[in-house]
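Changelog-linked ticket: flavin-adenine dinucleotide example.
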Amino acid sequence: MDFALSEEQKELQKWAHEFAEKEIRPVAGAYDETEEFPWPVVAKAAETGLYGFDLYANTMLADPTGLNLPLIMEEICWGCAGIGLAIFGTGLPLSSLSAAGTQEQLLRWAPRMFGTQQEPKVAAFCVTEPNAGSDVSSLRTKAERVDGGWVLNGTKIFATNGGIADVHIVVATVDPTLGIRGQASFIVSREENQGIRQGKKEKKLGIRASHTAEVILEDCFVPDEQLVGGQEKLDSKLERARGGSHERGSVALRTFEITRPLVGCQAVGIARAALEFAVQYAKERQTFGTPIVQYQGIGFQLADMALETDAARLLVHRAAWMAANGQPFTKAEGSMCKLKAGETAVRVTEQAIQVLGGYGFIKDFPVEKWYRDAKIYTLFEGTSEIQRLVISRALAGA
Ligand SMILES: Cc1cc2nc3c(=O)[nH]c(=O)nc-3n(C[C@H](O)[C@H](O)[C@H](O)COP(=O)(O)OP(=O)(O)OC[C@H]3O[C@@H](n4cnc5c(N)ncnc54)[C@H](O)[C@@H]3O)c2cc1C
């Protein structure tokens, strides 16, 4: 086992850090205030090579350690997780397409999700509905078979990049009697397909630079070739489900375990930002003629913050390595890392506010924003309760 980063990885880390420091930190507060989508920053990231299909292809396919992308994401989210999500939110629909799509679909749609360096685009993954969040099996968006394709009807909520994306991966039910095993994913393009539109744009507590919105599908026709994985695969899956097989669950679970380290590393980035800021502040701030870092009450808090941040990162890196090396997630190690990182980000940013005292609560300092940004990491991509459920089921062998 080797914990050292390679020279190439240190370079990647430095590259991302410099971008975060120069292009993200200075504008993070403004985007948090206005809740506008940070297109100019995404465009600069595309220009630099930090945004685009190539980044995923290069960092994921040719990286046996699995750490390259998490290292980059931690740095970018150290800059601002809202802008980080604007840059990396497209990774989620991409993962879904690469997990279940055909090679032709991947070749055609994956580059399109990101657009070009000159004209970057984003993509969205639409599963959640008003009555189906954690309980994905209850979703009601319907896909009906028609001549030459499918017609989709339903309302998706809370979709990251929903409606501003061109490519949307939409999960719908094709056979409601089969629950989650009767679902399929569809590629829906706002530019090519009629009947998809953005609904309400959400106003949020944190990650406010990231766009979150309702996506409405009204008699939205998509041709056969936009059924993710193709008809044959769907037919055989449905046939097996009708025969009582539960296998889709295990494939989906593995996909989640693989993508969760890529969410966890974002939360680690926020925690580290808060830790660094709090340490620096505690060295400079004096009360009763003494720098507060010298009080054990403050020093111990900082020690705990450092400990938890490192522990979260180690779990993230282990799960990322397991994903890259095809290891079985027997203890739901992907869920473990996401759970630990999300809860650590909330705890560490809250402690950072405490270390700053009243200044921590004031918007002139970035810590209150990091606290608001951190909270989403215990909610989306599976709430903390759902992660605990998955881990406990894995332990029980259920
Ligand atoms: C900013 C943001 C961005 C998002 N981006 C996307 C996106 O891009 N695409 C997408 O499809 N969705 C997205 N989501 C949706 C997100 O994944 C869901 O909100 C999340 O899965 C929780 O679902 P819910 O809100 O319906 O809560 P519910 O499922 O209603 O849960 C409510 C509470 O009950 C708990 N709970 C539920 N079931 C159980 C159980 N079995 N055991 C114990 N506790 C339980 C939950 O943990 C939670 O505390 C986003 C949400 C937000 C806020």
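Closing comment: Example verified and attached. Residues 125-128, 133-135, 158-160, 204, 212, 376, 379-380, 383, 385-386, 389 surround flavin-adenine dinucleotide (CB under 6 Å). The radius of gyration is 21 Å.
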